[in-house]
Amino acid sequence: MQHRWSDEQEQISLCEALDRVLNKGAVIVGEVTISIADIDLVYLGLQAILCSVDTARDTLPENSLVNRDT
């Protein structure tokens, strides 16, 4: 049986997509290097986690989150 993904794709709203990302979490990783004449001048590295506070509390180790209750 052959699947046709284009026929079976689910259309979701932006609000639903954001809700799914916040509930599951997403990791964004990127890097940019600016160089002139093969000499690196600027390196920018990015590592970010996008999720809701409840998801972070449930999945991340306790020592990685700042306790703001005190």
Work out the helix count.
3
By DSSP, the count of extended strands is 2
SS content category: alpha+beta
- The neighbouring-strand order within the major sheet is 1-2
Helix content: 25-40%
Distance between the termini: 58 Å
| Average pLDDT number | 78
Largest sheet: 2 strands, antiparallel
Percent of residues in β-strands: 25-35%
What is the assembly state of the chains in this entry? single chain
Uncertain spans: none
What's the number of structural domains? 1
Shape: flat
Report the C-alpha radius of gyration, rounded. 19 Å
Order of helices and strands: HHEEH
How would you sum up this structure, described in words?
The protein has 70 residues and is of the alpha+beta class. The protein has one domain. Helices cover 31% and strands 33% of the residues. The protein is built from three helices and two strands, in the order ααββα. It has a two-stranded antiparallel sheet with strand order 1-2. Strand 1 (26-36) and strand 2 (39-50) form a beta hairpin. The model has no long low-confidence stretch (mean pLDDT 78).
Question: Can you tag this structure with a few keywords?
Answer:
alpha+beta; two-stranded antiparallel ribbon; 3 helices; flat
Q: How is the secondary structure organized here?
A:
Blueprint: H1 5-8, H2 14-24, E1 26-36, E2 39-50, H3 53-59
Antiparallel strand pairs: 1-2
